Amino acid sequence: MEVSIIFKIGAVGILVSVLSQILKHSGREEQAFLVSLSGLLVVLFWIVPYIYELFENIQRLFVL
Predict the structure, then answer these.
(1) Are 39 and 13 in contact (CB under 8 A)?
(2) In the prediction, which pLDDT does 64 show?
(3) pTM for the whole thing?
C-alpha cells in the first residue's frame, strides 16, 4: 500500500470536515450532508482496489 494514499485520504477528510462545518453554520445542512457523502464515495473508490487486492492475496494464500 502506498503512503501517498493515506495522505490523500487525510486531505479529503480535512477538506470535507471544514466544508461541512462551514455549510452547517450557514444553515445549509443538506449541502453539508452531500459534501460528506461525496467525500466518503471518493475515498471508497480509492480504497476498493486495495481491498480487492487483499482478498485476492488471502485467496492465493489459502488456495480457496
Answers:
(1) yes
(2) 64
(3) 0.79
pLDDT recorded at residue 63: 84
- Report residue 7 as a C-alpha cell: 495522505
Angle between helix axes 3-25 and 29-62 (nearest 10 degrees) is: 160
Q: Could you tell me the three cell numbers for 48?
A: 476498493
Would you list the DSSP string of 12-63? HHHHHHHHHHHHHHTT-HHHHHHHHHHHHHHHHHHHHHHHHHHHHHHHHHHT
Cell of 38: 461525496
Contact 50, 27 (CB under 8 A): no
